[in-house]
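worker-03 picked up job from queue 'complexes'. Input manifest follows; three sequence lines, order preserved.
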Amino acid sequence: MNDDPREREGEQPPELPADGNLLGGSRFGLDRRGFLAVGGSGALFCTLAVTGGDPKEARRLARAADAAAARVKQPQGIARDAVDRLSFATPQPQPGGQAREYWLQARSVVWDYAPTGRDEWMGARVPGPRKRRFRAYVYQQYSAGFAAPIGHPAIPGPTLHAEVGDTLVVHFRNGDDHFNQAVTMHPHGVRYTPDYDGSYFGDFTRVGGFIAPGEEFTYTWEAVPGAVGVWPYHDHGPNHTLNTARGLFGAVVIRERGARAPDVEKIVYLHSFGPEVTGFDQVVQCINGRSYAGNTPTVRAKVGQDVALHVIGGDANFHTFHIHGHRWTDAAGVDVDTREVGPFETLTARFLEDNPGRWMYHCHVFPHQDAGMAGWYLVDP
Amino acid sequence: MNDDPREREGEQPPELPADGNLLGGSRFGLDRRGFLAVGGSGALFCTLAVTGGDPKEARRLARAADAAAARVKQPQGIARDAVDRLSFATPQPQPGGQAREYWLQARSVVWDYAPTGRDEWMGARVPGPRKRRFRAYVYQQYSAGFAAPIGHPAIPGPTLHAEVGDTLVVHFRNGDDHFNQAVTMHPHGVRYTPDYDGSYFGDFTRVGGFIAPGEEFTYTWEAVPGAVGVWPYHDHGPNHTLNTARGLFGAVVIRERGARAPDVEKIVYLHSFGPEVTGFDQVVQCINGRSYAGNTPTVRAKVGQDVALHVIGGDANFHTFHIHGHRWTDAAGVDVDTREVGPFETLTARFLEDNPGRWMYHCHVFPHQDAGMAGWYLVDP
Amino acid sequence: MNDDPREREGEQPPELPADGNLLGGSRFGLDRRGFLAVGGSGALFCTLAVTGGDPKEARRLARAADAAAARVKQPQGIARDAVDRLSFATPQPQPGGQAREYWLQARSVVWDYAPTGRDEWMGARVPGPRKRRFRAYVYQQYSAGFAAPIGHPAIPGPTLHAEVGDTLVVHFRNGDDHFNQAVTMHPHGVRYTPDYDGSYFGDFTRVGGFIAPGEEFTYTWEAVPGAVGVWPYHDHGPNHTLNTARGLFGAVVIRERGARAPDVEKIVYLHSFGPEVTGFDQVVQCINGRSYAGNTPTVRAKVGQDVALHVIGGDANFHTFHIHGHRWTDAAGVDVDTREVGPFETLTARFLEDNPGRWMYHCHVFPHQDAGMAGWYLVDP
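worker-03 finished. Artifact:
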């Protein structure tokens, strides 16, 4: 490395803001050690995702990230730029539209990634540890006013439905008493003002970007015409990578006004649980929180039905989604039976069912498929 | 990890089938050790693909997977679900269509991934070992009745051609006496009943999903209108990941009835041979079983010709295919000269040749390109 | 491994050229050791990219690749094939078009990937070393005749603009006195003859494929109708992988004749600096040579403006590009807010701005995002 200072003229520093505090200490009462741990979680997950990592080191770094996230204080919000001083009205439904209300609570739960213990595809015991439980983190749906949970906790969280012109009004509570850190809901596809972005932005965080344990916040999102489609939502708080990997994700479905739903419609999240999440040594490849056929969703349809599988990439890997015995036409008019889907993209496979029998759907990345990212698709005549 | 049983209510077990055997022993006479090894091949390849892995461990696990696969017995087939009791007629050609018959034999062969020993691109000796031979596994074409082999063994196997309304009738023999395990042919794109899916499904395996050494089976696949395109076929038996990686793959080309073939048409499989396949330490990046320009296919065309390169992803990696000096229009109408192709997707680059000279085609993932995934494209004026 | 010679008949060697020299020594005066190091750079980057690698080994191999590249001599060019004997006229602008001249010099410079030292997103110090300077390699623009540099060195290099019917005439000088190796400019999208491909092809290298230190070469590229779009250019010399990773890349924008540029247009290169480039231990995830919000470009627009972000994959990884609060319509007519972009592909996100505030744009691969691949997008009302 040549450090000849004459060469430094090549360097082009970005403009430094007038606020001298930029390079100074934090406003959040988080010590440097804490920040390093938070900031370092990027490197952590980079290592995990790209190398497969050392599971022991992964777990150590996850503990450090959790500890640091638990120390992050509510940002006060600073207005360094004119855009930070903007204020926004809460969006209302368009004429003819309605406000679709949901109550969702973030909760950590004990989760088994393969409750049957069997891989029906290979007719074998699921490889890996006999005990497959770990602490996952889920969005759980409640009845109005958080009166009572609706159904069991699930991964992904509840699917939120709206039509163009509606608003989605999501009452969100951070109901977790275990991880003790702020979480959020960040939606894709729908329109929202910065207040409802649901993203932690450090000093620039707005109200919806930091929901501390025990707190509630109501997000309002707009189903604008360009939002028609199926989209992910997920945590975007200070520890988003780890908490999303634990299961804090779900889907939004926006349809044209009055559009008919497919006869069979299924959200299919392709994701994984790594050692930093499970505490186990191997990475588990999952569909909707479960691993291996018979544990992953068994989808069922009937000849003649309009079937839509909405496949969402839910981890740091790229996948190719394949269904045996079927093909579908993509938006450009090409018939495919295998199609890539990247992190937090959505791929919709929609087709008129015409082929009865027992089929398999799976990720066509062999190591994902083999490590559990596969399920049954059963078609009755 | 908090194991407080009160939290277990969060767990949502899938319904257990009435068949109590689900959690019991195997029907296949395979001991637990064997199943673990088979089931564990997922973790094996995950490790290999994502980490580059420890070559020694990769080879050990491949030996274990081969040994386990050799012990898997012909499934008896069970009918747990109504769909498992369905029976299917063998499809016939549509009026005006025909049955296109092929005879294919799976054979393991000694294979050299770089017979010239030279990388013509870099003007250098191919890096790595001087001895580049290992045991690959190929689909080889035979004349009717398996009378005689047609040509030399090749990777990929023979390209199967049909037009809409035809059936592909593929007489398949597992002719390998080395690996001693069941293999299959699983096609993409074409229509088939569950009998001709060519997939091992454990207890749910149908006739075409387990072709033991020395056995024969005839697959019948339909060239339905939605099947127009170019598609992979590959092994989907009990040890599919390892055997596909060894070379058990090929392509199906379905055209509209009477459609004219391009003047130059080439199947371009982007894949790799890892230590678990070759026994060597490094991963070799290949096009059609060969590595480094001058070993990989040299494609030749002439100005004015209609050229189609059908690029298929044949391993667990994602690739971007690039041709120097050319571009093509994709299905959505965008001109591109580099386009991604994921595992077992097909990308077609089709263009009217207008640029004479020596060109290179390659994967634009630098480490793939540099490790051999590159070849010459020569255009005469 | 069975080496039974009877099995060798399975082997299908490609035709060996009549030129017996193919397997002989090099024409370049490079000893075998040198070639191995050059040829081995593929394996090097494969290891680096796929495994995250051992930083120490990565640095050692980079030093070896640099040393080998410094020994590669100007190829003499051989005409083994008829296409190698073709000669080509220099293209001229079409009627109504013009020659657009640029002067670009390749230079290595000391570069800081995060000059502020702060990650504004997390409100934290940038993780990793306090000293973030290393020797990068850039294309820098000069005024006519290389009279004087235009602006500071930047990553990516200057954006080259032309309209259909124009030629791009790029006067290129290898002005680096540090790395002491040949480099080139290889463009995507535009049309060029083999002379202007800018690619080192070993014995088959043409004039533009090896620009030694201190030498100059003028590339002439054609803005044909199919070239409309935004494309990368980058080094394709003997050590292209390492030098491209150091920053030797930029973009070409080709528009229809008279087409109006978007109101806001930004090239967004998603790439990374690894240990082999920086000398540091961790991989740094970058946008345009910088890492972490406040260092990466802050893009600014205003409600009502036509905004285009041209996202180019600039390393060996696949990315998904996401903008908060916005979506765009892809070429097939699908509305998206996250879309994959592979190595040296271009993704254009173009939309009518309608949502004021502070937004984030980032790669949605969490480990990339967290390790710095994120930036601000500020929208005034």
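worker-03 released lock.
Chain C touches chain B through 77 residues (CB under 8 Å).
Chain C has a mean pLDDT of 88.
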